[in-house]
Amino acid sequence: MKVLVIGNGGREHAIAWKLLQSPKVKKVLCIPGNGGTTSMEGCQTLPMRTDDFEGIARFVLVQGISLVVIGPELPLSMGIADYLQQQNIKVFGPNQAGAQIESSKAWAKELMVEAGVPTAGAEVFSDAEAAKAYVSQQGAPIVVKADGLAAGKGVVVAATVEEAHCAIADLSNQGFRLFVIEEYLTGQEVSVLALSDGLTVRPLIPAQDHKQIGEGDTGANTGGMGAYAPTPIVDADCLERIEREVLQPTLATLQKRGIDYRGILYAGLKIAPDGQPKVLEFNCRFGDPETQAVLPLLETPLEQLFLACIEQRLEELPPISWKSGSAVCVVAASQGYPGSYKRGYPISGVQQATESGAIVFHAGTKIQQNQLVTDGGRVLGVTAMGETFEDAIAQAYQSIDCIEFEGIYYRKDIGHRIK
């Protein structure tokens, strides 16, 4: 079978890489792809826009593609799954109504309350000054969220009232008009990516992400500077509790609202010191870089899981099979990220990193005049596996040390929470 993957990040490279490991997948095509998918055997990239729904549908039908996998949240929020389904194309990814769980934090919070899902208390404001007044009343620490897609950077955990006021003003200047002001929760953040076929939900192994740009989890939020899986903080009992208290009630409420949700239901949670999981947010797609740590450990063929979701056969599927051990992904970013940065710097050492035992997933890269160059804020994700986290961490850093480009930056403490 031939599979089309929509997107150009590290997540999409990881999805394409894992699909190509199945004997049933003969070819993967990526729109628009990146430098890694361009050079991967069995993969072809096409320079099309992800919002060209008509062109994508025409290409799929002409090429006889069996399955389309939507990577990023933006085309899902624009209704790409709806459009392709109308052309009788099999699509992994929720429809536009379901994608609101990520595209509108206010809508998602209302859904969680209706579902009885444990989550932080929050208020929604359409006026920036009213939001600031509420912050002054509540005090800090407090969380400020923009209502809309912000590439993982629309959330500010404010330590002071002044910091929260500045965040509201900054988000307002960026064009956001709705703000979710949320209580601050203590504990560790975890990511539980779950498969949904609209009727049944199945969690994958839990992961932990490192959002902040600086070591020790300091500085500005990013799309993610590294991840590891399976996180020890979520044991089998905790995962079962998340499935029972979070995932199943959320899916049931989506059904109640008439939303047929087929794709990834990604719960970002805080695990309190007493073990209570509470939802920080939901996403409608695979996490990035969590996917780069989760998929290397997956043994069940990925296309089997996708097709079971699309065809509503998830309940019939045998238990998902996983490799033993751990996986750690360290992200190499451009200097200046998550702020402004330059592109076009030559990248060297990827082959050496691969030969040293890592998997190098490309994110912000492209091939320019036969040279691999930087083309984004997060450039590469270097993933290593090991029987222990210590082994995986050591291998990831040994491999990333092989890679060079001007201004390369990566955190040196990915996995520091593991005890």
TrEMBL record:
Pfam families: GARS_A, GARS_C, GARS_N. It catalyses: 5-phospho-beta-D-ribosylamine + glycine + ATP = N(1)-(5-phospho-beta-D-ribosyl)glycinamide + ADP + phosphate + H(+). Residues 109-311 form the ATP-grasp domain. Keywords: ATP-binding, Ligase, Manganese, Metal-binding, Nucleotide-binding, Purine biosynthesis. Pathway: Purine metabolism; IMP biosynthesis via de novo pathway; N(1)-(5-phospho-D-ribosyl)glycinamide from 5-phospho-alpha-D-ribose 1-diphosphate: step 2/2. GO terms for biological process: 'de novo' IMP biosynthetic process; purine nucleobase biosynthetic process. InterPro entries: ATP-grasp, ATP_grasp_subdomain_1, PreATP-grasp_dom_sf, PRibGlycinamid_synth_ATP-grasp, PRibGlycinamide_synth, PRibGlycinamide_synth_C-dom, PRibGlycinamide_synth_C_sf, PRibGlycinamide_synth_CS. Its EC number is 6.3.4.13. Its cofactor is Mg(2+); Mn(2+). GO terms for molecular function: ATP binding; metal ion binding; phosphoribosylamine-glycine ligase activity. HAMAP family: GARS. Belongs to the GARS family. This is Phosphoribosylamine--glycine ligase. It comes from Lusitaniella coriacea LEGE 07157.
